[in-house]
Specification:
By secondary structure, this protein is mainly alpha-helical. The chain contains 10 helices and 2 strands; from the N terminus they run E-H-H-E-H-H-H-H-H-H-H-H. The relative contact order is 0.14.
């Protein structure tokens, strides 16, 4: 029987057993990772360099892109390295760091998506108060609150999870260190405390989700009352990408954590984890730039300056 003091490393779930499939996994994840770096990096640079995008909506989008870069960089490089070198090992400290960073970045992103829903609500439903309610200082305070609460929440989850005695070996049933697979390794009578913490956090996330949905009910009502078709199109172009990102993020995460045990399987858990930890950060830049003319223009100008060295 294993215990926490005797464990020096964990064994992560391998994507494949044969060398050919391991290399395929490496190159596939490398392509997705580079696409995420490029997409999010372009959005960060475009927002930082274009003064026309120095508004609350794009300030929060810049923060979101930073979080997406951090999220995918927490899980993918280690998985790629393990496939390339045909190993499954991650150190005890490395696993704790990976868990802390992933939980921190995911909670911060969800908090930021909630703030972005509030930003769209004020912009469309209370435009006369937008400058007052979402001034530069207020935006910085809200972003800092999202990062700060995520840090404390992640610290609590990580300390709780790694304080549990581990009695069931060191094989983590996921391709990165995550709370549910680690709880499966703990003694059956000791993990109730962390489950309680997860339950409390989940209740807060449900409240955030309700806030987002109620905000969008008001937003769509206000948009449908806009007399001009051009005005409605512009309003929808700033809201639909955010709603699409929230839907992808929440649906995959909630299904992964709340699906009934009867349909649970290692392969399904793996697919869901890839969706919310790898695919989600990679497609966010595409979703946000697809319908946003201002962002597309800024990205086009940035690429033109970099590639052709002209303004």
């Amino acid at each position: 029987m294993s215990n926490t003091s005797s464990i020096t490393h964990f064994l992560l779930l391998a994507f494949a057993d044969t060398r050919e499939l391991q290399l395929l996994h490496f190159w596939l994840f490398l392509g997705i990772y580079l696409a995420a770096l490029l997409g999010n990096g372009l959005i960060i640079t475009a927002i930082a360099c274009d003064h026309r995008l120095h508004t609350p909506m794009y300030f929060f989008l810049l923060n979101l892109s930073i979080l997406d870069l951090g999220c995918i960089s927490t899980t993918v490089p280690k998985s790629m390295t393990n496939s390339l070198w045909d190993t499954r090992a991650i150190s005890y400290v490395g696993c704790a760091a990976q868990l802390f960073l992933f939980v921190f970045l995911v909670i911060a992103e969800y908090s930021l998506l909630t703030i972005m829903a509030y930003d769209r609500y004020v912009a469309i439903c209370q435009p006369l108060h937008y400058g007052t309610l979402l001034g530069s200082r207020a935006c910085v305070h809200m972003a800092a609150a999202a990062w700060g609460t995520a840090f404390l929440n992640s610290l609590l989850h990580t300390a709780n999870t790694f304080s549990l005695p581990l009695c069931k070996g060191n094989a983590v049933d996921q391709f990165f260190c995550e709370i549910p697979p680690l709880l499966k390794l703990s003694c059956s009578h000791t993990y109730i405390r962390e489950v309680g913490v997860i339950g409390f956090s989940f209740s807060l996330h449900i409240l955030c989700f309700i806030f987002i949905m109620v905000s969008y009910v008001h937003i769509f009502r206000a948009v449908l009352r806009i007399p001009s078709e051009q005005g409605r199109h512009k309003a929808f172009s700033t809201c639909i990408p955010h709603l699409a990102v929230v839907s992808l993020f929440v649906s995959t995460g909630m299904f992964a954590y709340l699906k009934p045990p009867s349909i649970s399987s290692p392969s399904l858990d793996l697919v869901l984890a890839v969706l919310y930890s790898v695919v989600h950060p990679a497609v966010n830049p595409l979703i946000y730039s697809m319908r946003n003319k201002e962002l597309k223009d800024a990205l086009r100008n940035l690429i033109r300056e970099v590639v052709f060295q002209q303004k």
